[in-house]
Amino acid sequence: MEPSGTIVVGGGIVGLAIAHALAHRGQRVTVVEGKQIGERAAAGVAAGMLAPSSEADLTDPRLTHLALASHEAYPAWTATLERESGVETGYDATGTLLVALHRDHLALIEHLEAFQRERGLHAERLTGRQAREEEPYLAPGIAGALRMPDAQVDPRHLLRALTVALERAGAVLLEGTQVTAVAPGVDGGYAVATEREGVASTLHATQVVVAAGAWSRQIASPIAGLPLLPLPLRPVKGQILRLRGERLVRHVVRTPDVYIVPRADGELVVGASMEEQGFDERPTAGGVYDLLREARRVLPGIAELELTECGVGFRPALRDHLPAIGNVDGAGLFVASGHFRNGVELAPITAWLLADLMCDGRLDALLEPFSPGRFIAKDVAR
Ligand SMILES: Cc1cc2nc3c(=O)[nH]c(=O)nc-3n(C[C@H](O)[C@H](O)[C@H](O)COP(=O)(O)OP(=O)(O)OC[C@H]3O[C@@H](n4cnc5c(N)ncnc54)[C@H](O)[C@@H]3O)c2cc1C
Question: Fewest CB atoms within 10 A around its CB: which of 39, 65, 239, 329?
Fold first, then answer.
């Protein structure tokens, strides 16, 4: 069959954002998602912090540059999505308070400030008293805080907004359809083998983007027994809680051990564990206990809230903890995966820069450090 259009494998935040950027450039796009949108995607549980400042000390400077570009793009991106879909995304730029509960935390804050200065990031030091004036429900006796201009979004709303915007733009969304293999097509382009309720079929496309998160390695190549993308990808399990009740804080509140993200509708998200447990989907008593203990230390009032959800998600992580975004085979096969702890934050910039590359052949300098070529030998797929 004559191939046409682009297939995006994976309807997580990264795949949907790419499909949306391609649709905006007039491309015919089909998103193939193995489950329902949001059912298995990490963004279905993620906190949605857009936090280039708060995590500057944990982040490769090249990734901070990409994150800052994405951060800048966010207000316009979410406004466009809200206009196109009629769905509120929960974008909120109130900011983040990194709270020091004791002197050791203050030392960590000083360490972070040094990285922020180096990268030209702005933050404001507050005394414990000033922090409690900002957020009266913080625990008494805190040692100090750092206020940062980070933002947040509700990733569940964002997935919904992207889905509706894509449908209205005429993109095709195939949910419950697992991609099993990708191979060069007989008439050019690619043959994408799928399975839906036990029924196998093949789709054809000129270009394919693999954005299947931590599962991207499981798609087969034409060479029996080998994955399409030999990326050193692994899932990093995250347990995260949702509580509901009186709105206790306006800012995102963090300590070095926990974060608390308030939503406008009264939900409070408390996260998150980082566990090397493969695809273990079970929330555990220890994981929940640790999160609640640390959250209660900084915000005692959470003990009164209703615990409504213990979620588990899988961050797609590469060996160097940087994403892989770009071309794979010198032709029409692309990947966007490995966004680890930052996929919500990086979604718009990933989508725009990859769409530039796919549509115009233009590789932005911001993307260069994230080439999948650092892991993939030439001629993998062809
Ligand atoms: C607890 C937790 C908290 C987080 N908090 C934040 C945060 O505050 N800020 C932030 O920026 N990031 C955060 N993240 C990270 C962020 O959620 C991820 O980086 C991001 O969601 C990854 O998106 P993705 O689309 O690449 O992959 P995924 O979300 O994994 O989506 C991949 C999709 O592909 C589908 N799929 C897989 N295989 C196939 C196949 N063969 N065929 C068809 N479909 C397939 C899956 O079903 C899934 O829907 C958090 C993650 C976790 C787990």
Answer: 39
- Is residue 129 included in any domain, yes or no? yes
Does residue 267 register a pLDDT over 90? yes
pLDDT at 382: 44
Instruction: Show the tokens assigned to 92.
Output: 């909120």
Q: Is the domain of 309 the same as that of 238?
A: yes
13-66 confidence digits (pLDDT tens): 999 999 999 999 999 999 999 999 999 999 999 999 999 888 888 889 899 999
* Cα distance between residue 21 and residue 73, in whole Å: 13
Do 191 and 162 belong together in one domain? yes
Residue 333 CA to ligand 1 centre (angstroms)? 20
Residue 265: give the domain boundaries.
96-148+234-317
Instruction: Give residue 2's pLDDT band: very low, low, confident or very high (50, 70, 90).
Output: low
Task: Please tell me the residue having the least CA distance from ligand 1 atom 2.
Answer: 46
Atom 3 (ligand 1): residue with closest C-alpha? 46
Q: Is the pTM of this model over 0.85?
A: yes
| Residue having the nearest C-alpha atom to atom 37 of ligand 1 | 212
Atom number in ligand 1 closest to CA 216: 38
Token pair of 9, please?
Answer: 């494998």
**Residues 251 and 263 sit within 8 Å (Cβ to Cβ):** no
174/312 same-domain check: no
